[in-house]
Amino acid sequence: METYIGIDIAKHTFDLNCLPQQKIQQFENNKKGIRKAVKMITKLRPKLIVMEATGGYEALLAAELHAAKLPVAVVNPRRIRDFARANGQLAKTDKLDAAVIALFAARMQPPTQEQIDHNSRLMRAMVARRHQLIRMRTAENNRREHVLDRAIGQSLNRIIKTIEREIEQVEQSIREQLDGMPELKAKAHILDSAPGIGETTASMLVTELPELGRLNRRQIAMLIGVAPINRDSGTFRGKRMTGAGRRDVRSRLFMPTLVAIRHNPAIRRFYEHLLAKGKTKMTAIIACMRKLITILNTMVAKNEAWNPKFN
Prior knowledge:
Number of domains: 3
Oligomer: single chain
Radius of gyration: 22 Å
Shape: globular
Number of strands: 7
Number of helices: 13
Mean pLDDT: 82
């Protein structure tokens, strides 16, 4: 019988549940514990291993499982919670969570993630770090707007300057790292050619969305959560909604979409067309984000730079 494994990950430990064997075991979430877990999992030869995205606690384990050529899917925790509620599982412990994740793996069989090498992981970490620094700078700038005390203002200015220096260093590191990765650099160069997509966004997309260029337009839109979802039942016809998918990619694509609406002719025409049809501005912006990502997907798939004829 096929084996499915669910892993519930915490900061210091992770619990593993295997189906149909009902094998439950806890490991320390460190290099030693991960090595022991990978050795045991390899012997089981599972069809699928599922774990939740936990803000980074799962990263090392997922990387080691990938290195062992094991099929791994890292899924949105919300999907697991919804699945548990649908199955009447309201109690919550680490062992129960691992069992629910294993059952989710067997029933839902989410797609596995591609293996990410060391350079790609480092690139992803640097892009994420830049995003953190940008948010820190924005927060400090917002505080500075309301400061009345001179000493506090000077403190904020020093912190902002320090953050800006760190941003410059991280951006330089990203460029240097990209220079050593010809395939990613070529893909980023293609993306950077599109009006509205700058060097930073291109670097983010090639690291956070490696599937770009290998999926069809609907699949790529679903992956980042900008594909409209039907809400019809009986005589009820609900408003189409978007969501789920890779929220972090979606949030970081919002500002580039606004820039594209202003400077990218194809996106601007589409936006104006939607407004003329009576769509709200936010609905039109999300639709433009969907159109932009599908155009970028086509560019990468065809290995073509931006062409004004894209629509």
